[in-house]
Amino acid sequence: MKISNSKKEFSRAQKVLVGGVNSPVRAFKKVGGTPLVMSRGRGAKFYDVDGNAYTDYCLSWGALILGHAHKEVVAAVHKALKNGISYGTTTKAEIDLAQTITQHIPSIDLIRFVNSGTEAVMSAIRLARGYTSRNKVLKFDGCYHGHCDDLLTTAGSGVAFLASSTSRGVPPAHVQNTLSIPYNDTQEFFNIIERHRKELACVIIEPVAGNMGVVLPKKGFLRTLRELTHKHSIILIFDEVMTGFRTNFGGAQADWGIRPDLTCLGKIIGGGFPIGAYGGRRDIMKRLAPLGDVYQAGTFSGNPVVMAAGVATLKNLNSRLYKQINDTAEHFTKDTNAFFKECHVPAHFSAYKGMMSLRFRQSEVYDYSSAQAASSGVLYAKLFHHLLKNGIYWPPADWEAFFISSAHTLSDLKYLRNKIVEFFKAK
Ligand SMILES: Cc1ncc(COP(=O)(O)O)c(C=O)c1O
Predict the structure, then answer these.
(1) Mutate to test the pocket of ligand 1, among 25, 26, 61, 118 (most ligand atoms within 8 A of CB)
(2) Domains assigned to the chain
């Protein structure tokens, strides 16, 4: 496979961009080799600057549920662009997107758009602190909520691979109010609530974790969080930046039947454009400026082009499409897991329908330490390059979830399965 143009472009990138990238995991540090420089995408495939085609399972880190350059999303963006790019005023498109989201997610009475998932989380936490007049935040080990200072402790995704699992440059004062406990550990949750219930502003969780690979909440875990936070007037925040609109219209909260106080969204709701949003209970959201005394603002928040892409994306989602994505993914994971079992390969897919990750052992992964035990940097890197050579693009780090879109076909997934089987059989 010729990648000389990618090599040339990446060496140019390294001279002007930090590490040649604008987000660390793109640099292939976990898998080695030269990061590919992409030039265009259509449907389930994208193409590098050498003209090689790849079936994309990274999908802009989960944002592209309809695949690349979906016709109706592109048309909506063109139409919005022709009218103008940014006004810094209220527009119809942002009302439309807000209405669509609030109709589908009943826990959201009012919503505020921002420009990234990080910004959504950072703002939701400020709001929770303002509303409760308390300072402490409880998170769970291995959950990643973006790169805001307060939550960069024992975080998943790229942060997990920093030497101290916490970024330098975060003053101790910024994390002194952050508590972090193991995911799915109900007893530890009881303990921490018992100790800190009067100081806790909020509990924030990925209701299905996606940043230490995919980890599902154990039966009753989310309900326990809901009951105890409610009892002690602690705000429960679901970070659904990754899970929002992923498997159904209502997010993981619909699948588990839990109503959080606040929800953070991003990725899918922007159709591939930069976006974040947070919303929830009316009485809490009304504490935000201009109605209330918690400040948060943004020059580009609710940008009309972004909103148009979001509206067009959500318009194209329907229960038939979700069924197709979910069934295709479930068929793939079941089938490949059966191969792992039959052939005694120490691996399995942990999955939340179309959001999946590969574990390098058979036993269940339910928290950060079991995710660490099931991680295999070297083997993953070899598999990544085997797939890449065969025209398949997976996330370049084994803790990043991979996704499928409505553009992926059963035969795409069959091909992926065959290439995985081929890899493990040759070992
Ligand atoms: C669960 C979760 N929250 C927050 C974020 C941060 O979003 P962004 O990268 O848009 O800032 C991410 C990013 O992957 C995420 O997965």
Answers:
(1) 118
(2) 71-315 (3.40.640.10), 318-377+411-427 (3.90.1150.10)
Known catalytic residues? 144, 239, 267
Looking at residue 33, the DSSP 8-state letter turns out to be: S
For the entire predicted model, the pTM comes to 0.97
CA dist list (Å): 339 to 105, 328, 375: 38, 17, 19
Q: Is the CB of 116 under 6 A from ligand 1?
A: yes
Cβ contact 5:35 at 8 Å? no
Which of these, 247, 262, 254, 342, lies nearest to 294 by C-alpha position?
A: 262
| 1 C-alpha to ligand 1 centroid (Å) | 33
Strand order in the sheet with 392-393: 38-42, 45-48, 53-56, 392-393
Cβ of residue 115 lying under 6 Å from some atom of ligand 1: no
Quick: pLDDT tens for 363-418: 999 999 999 999 987 999 999 999 999 999 999 999 999 999 999 999 999 999 99
